[in-house]
Amino acid sequence: xxxxxxxxxxxxxxxxxxxxxxxxxxxxxxxxxxxxxxxxxxxxxxxxxxxxxxxxxxxxxxxxxxxxxxxxxxxxxxxxxxxxxxxxxxxxxxxxxxxxxxxxxxxxxxxxxxxxxxxxxxxxxxxxxxxxxxxxxxxxxxxxxxxxxxxxxxxxxxxxxxxxxxxxxxxxxxxxxxx
Length: 179
Hints:
Number of strands: 0
Strand content: under 5%
Order of helices and strands: HHHHHHH
């Protein structure tokens, strides 16, 4: 007679072993993918940031990192003569964003919310809406896969990024003046 306990144990052990063997390649792939991304510590969120805003802009820094890589790839392919300018501008953008983030993190929560509300109000301006049109044109150019249109759209995006960098500098100057 077969012992039902022994049979059940074998089935459970076989299922557990199968599950572990199937999961191992997934974990290995995830580790390789994380290593391939490289150093994106400038975009990593701290636990304090996560507690402060667990939803909303949860992945904003990681998205910024991916956006930066994507833009560099497009520039390399469609406008390689402007790559050095793009790299300089994107590096400045990252530096300004991190500097502004550190200033915001140093503010008390009430002041930070007031400042963020004023930023949101500023984004409702006509200038910001015009900047959104540039990205709509860029999106259409990429979707059409037209090299000439992408190259033209990239120049518009470059100008917009430079404009945003200038806005970030102005905000940092406001912080420094108020201190």
